[in-house]
Design goal:
The structure holds two protein chains of two kinds. By secondary structure, chain A is α+β, with helices and mostly antiparallel strands. Chain A contains 15 helices and eleven strands. Chain A folds into two domains: about 200 residues, Cytochrome Bc1 Complex, Chain A, domain 1 (2-Layer Sandwich), CATH 3.30.830.10; about 180 residues, 2-Layer Sandwich (Cytochrome Bc1 Complex, Chain A, domain 1). In chain A, a hairpin with a 6-residue loop joins strand 9 and strand 10. Classes of the chains: A alpha+beta, B alpha+beta.
């Protein structure tokens, strides 16, 4: 049980506080309800570029990092398709340094043409380093538009192409800030050895005078039901092939979500999972195989990735995978297998929730999903999943017309 | 409402004291040390078994494959059965093999950890290196290496390390055809010498009862300890400039560095401050110049890799191909500046505060504290090292920084590797 308190300022800022008497540090996590899904299709990669610019100076602070480092802290940020998250961790006695910095960049940014220019280049290098200059690095650049036709998950957080980043203008950046970076669109989550009253006073001191703005109502195009098998083959300079199968599944917390998550574990989470045992150990068709979910807020994907052995055909791998999927649809799983994946889930959850930084981040995320207390109730939701509902979800999701297949062929083989 | 004065930073307070927690220590009958931190605030448990099973005394590929196969089955049960029973109890395992040691870590919740650990220890003790398992693991590892060899950063790192440590086993590389040379008999022999007779220490982090600790001690007694022999290699290194052309690469990976020392050396603690200033944190000189001012890279950093008897200094980055030379010049300029111009007090003060803040953070919580302890204990030092480190950081002055840069960061002492 992770205990917390929450309150909301008049300007709409939601605040969560978790008390931990054992730590000398304090974690300040700020989540903004804006992600790559909120971008316009001709300006993709914008939420992430913007995240970089948030470190390039705000109205009273020329550089975000310096005062925080001066106070013995460090920080970072990340952007997902759904939201943007900033975090600071520093010695508890210096909490005000982080609140000063974070509130100032919520109040108003003040970066220059030069910093926009530099961060565009930095992001372009990030694009090259992680997506273009790595074997299989462009997997998601190819898979996302195959699996999504209407919904903005159509593109990845880094963006569709380098050109979108190159063309970002100052006006666009400012408009983006005005729309998404304000108290009503943010969740502030604090964890450390503090008293609630102290937290309230400090948060009021630094955030109460930030003007509220109207929350932008998200109205994203809904992804139509798939109803067709999609496939794409690309040839790349990679040492061997990679087959990716992606099945649409419900968004986070929706009906069938927990079932689909557990199905991915049954199929490919560990060395005792069904696909691993069959395709790797028994049949020796792959050198590795893995299954996981994207876990997005809107309809997500259950992904199977198979690294075939070099002499094996895609037909062999594919028919073996389908055999296993059909088994899951035809026959209820044993009670013992369900217990196994629930036990695995509980262990990984317990380790993921260690430390104040992780706790503050997970609390903010659950608050975004509607209730910070989700951190405490989520396990029960997995435990409530029945064998029958797993079978039903498998039947709903794991069919050919719900599948997008990306084949990355090696130019070195054949 | 009174509005808040945002024009100046709130006053930051220095860290005056860090509480370092010593683990409980017990030396078992077989000479193995058991280190335990039981004061935790959750139900997680982590247990590390560290073996003298690195690659220093054998072929590198052998050490790696042996580690990978620890849970691959014995005369009575297959790897599938072993993995299934660990998973059933919600357990996770992780094996890390480097040149000097191999560590198998077991993760689980307190109610199952003992059962998981028993399964794991049985498996390690009785593994028989089944031929089919060996073949499958070799295929997997060979493919992983093939993929890694596509990356400019892997190629640069391999070229760099194999050059600066070429007189020693640390500089040995695994090549694709090495995998064909791995024989079952050699693995059995390696396991006998380095696992069954090579347990070095055990760490436990988690709220275990005395009875459970006793059971783990009994498991540990199934192994023997090996006396560590201090290797006596020649660490001489001739600075060289090497470039590997990779046609279609979009970026160039850079590695610059030299043989240096590890934390047993008297200048190490001071060097940490110099390194931080140069490339050890986000606001470092290198990040500021090459990322934040010029936009040549997504990231650049420097550090010291510590080996048991020495260490090496490195600068690492991946930069836009067209800016390779400009980046090298900019790095050289930053180093020269440190050698010729005194760092101003404000910047030095910042680095000092930042470093001490990091020590505080890296000692926060039982898991972190065990890692802190291991990182000094491995070198025969105590946690007093950190008190000394903090004192050194607080006392160092700009003249000393300049002198260190002149002594240890001479450009002509550096090996420079570029790939891309």
């Amino acid at each position: 049980m992770i205990e917390f308190e929450s309150f909301t300022l008049e300007n709409g800022l939601r605040v969560i506080f978790h008390k931990d008497v054992t730590t000398p540090m304090v974690a300040i996590n700020t989540l903004y309800d804006v992600g790559a899904r909120d971008e316009s299709p001709d300006r993709t990669g914008f939420a992430h570029l913007f995240e970089h610019l948030m470190f390039s100076g705000s109205i009273h602070v020329p550089n975000f990092d310096t005062p925080l480092e001066q106070a013995g802290g460090n920080n970072n940020a990340f952007t997902t398709n759904d939201f943007t998250n900033y975090y600071d961790i520093l010695p508890a006695q210096n909490i005000e340094t982080a609140l000063w910095l974070e509130s100032d960049r919520m109040l108003s940014l003040a970066f220059t043409d030069k910093s926009l220019e530099v961060q565009r280049n930095v992001v372009i290098e990030e694009f090259k380093q992680n997506y273009l200059n790595q074997p299989y690095g462009d997997l998601w650049l190819e898979l996302s538009p195959l699996a999504y036709k209407k919904h903005p998950y159509h593109w990845t957080t880094i963006g569709k192409s380098i050109d979108h980043i190159k063309n970002a203008t100052m006006e666009e950046v400012k408009a983006f800030f005005d729309r998404y970076y304000h108290p009503g669109n943010a969740i502030l989550s604090i964890a450390g050895n503090l008293e609630l009253n102290q937290v309230k006073d400090l948060v009021n001191k630094w955030y109460a005078d930030i003007p509220s703005r109207k929350k932008h109502i998200r109205n994203l195009p809904k992804e139509p039901v798939q109803n067709e098998f999609r496939t794409k083959t690309i040839v790349r300079e990679v040492p061997s092939d990679l087959y990716v199968f992606a099945y649409k599944m419900p968004g986070r917390g929706k009906q069938g979500y927990y079932e689909a998550d557990l199905i991915s574990d049954i199929l490919g989470h560990s060395k005792s999972s069904r696909l691993y045992k069959k395709l790797k150990k028994q049949e020796e068709l792959v050198t590795d195989i893995d299954a996981y979910i994207t876990g997005t807020i809107d309809d997500g994907l259950l992904v199977i990735m198979a690294y075939p052995d070099d002499h094996v055909s895609i037909e062999q791998v594919e028919s073996s995978i389908w055999e296993e999927l059909e088994k899951l649809k035809a026959k209820p799983i044993e009670e013992k297998e369900l217990e196994k994946i629930i036990n695995k889930m509980k262990t990984s959850k317990a380790f993921e929730e260690q430390g104040i930084l992780n706790k503050s981040m997970i609390l903010a995320f659950h608050e975004l999903m509607g209730d910070a207390n989700g951190i405490n109730t989520e396990t029960a939701k997995y435990e409530q999943v029945s064998i029958e509902s797993i079978q039903k979800t498998a039947q709903d999701i794991l069919h050919i017309n719900n599948c997008s297949r990306l084949v990355i062929k090696s130019n070195e083989i054949d | 409402m009174k509005s808040t004065d945002r024009s100046k930073a709130p006053k930051a307070h220095p860290i005056t004291r860090i509480n370092f927690i010593y683990p409980e220590v017990e030396t078992l009958k077989n000479g193995v040390n058991l280190y335990c931190i039981r004061q935790t605030n959750d139900r997680t448990v982590r247990i590390d078994f560290t073996f003298n099973a690195g690659s220093l005394n054998d072929a590198k590929v052998l050490a790696e494959i042996a580690g990978e196969l620890l849970l691959s089955g014995d005369a009575t049960q297959t790897s599938d059965v072993i993995e299934e029973s660990i998973d059933q109890l919600g357990g996770y395992t992780e094996v890390k093999v480097n040149t000097e040691k191999a560590t198998l870590t077991v993760f689980g919740l307190v109610e199952h950890i003992l059962s998981i650990t028993k399964i794991v220890v049985d498996a390690i003790q009785n593994v028989n290196f089944d031929s089919k398992e060996l073949k499958q693991t070799i295929q997997e590892r060979r493919k992983e290496l093939k993929i890694r060899l596509q990356k400019v950063k892997t190629l640069a790192q391999r070229t760099f390390v194999s050059h600066i440590l070429k007189e020693t086993p640390y500089g040995e590389l695994i090549h694709l055809d090495d995998f064909d040379k791995v024989k079952k008999e050699d693995l059995i022999d390696f396991h006998q010498r380095n696992y069954l007779n090579g347990l070095q220490q055990i760490n436990i982090v988690g709220a275990l009862e005395d009875k459970e600790i006793k059971d783990i001690k009994n498991l540990a007694l199934r192994f023997n300890k090996k006396d560590t022999v201090i290797p006596n290699y020649s660490y001489t290194h001739t600075p060289t400039i090497l470039h590997l052309e990779k046609d279609k690469a979009l970026q160039t990976a850079i590695r610059i560095g030299r043989m240096l020392f590890n934390k047993k050396h008297t200048d190490y603690k001071k060097f940490i401050v110099l390194n931080t200033l140069l490339g050890g944190y986000f606001g470092s000189r290198l990040m500021t110049s090459i990322r934040e001012e010029k936009g040549y890279t997504y990231g650049i950093g420097s550090g010291v890799v510590q080996l048991s008897e020495t260490g090496y200094f490195y600068i690492a980055s991946e930069v836009a191909k067209e800016f390779k030379d400009a980046t090298l010049n900019a790095i050289k300029a930053e180093i020269e500046k440190l050698q010729t111009t005194l760092v101003d007090n404000e910047e030095l003060e910042l680095v000092k505060n930042y470093l001490i803040g990091q020590i505080l953070e890296q000692s926060d919580g039982a898991q972190a504290m065990m890692d802190r302890f291991n990182s000094v204990n491995y070198f025969g030092l105590t946690l007093n090292y950190y008190d000394d480190l903090i004192r050194t950081i607080n006392q160092i002055n700009p003249e000393e920084i300049k002198a260190l840069a002149q002594r240890y960061l001479k450009w002509e002492d550096m090996t420079i590797v570029t790939v891309g």
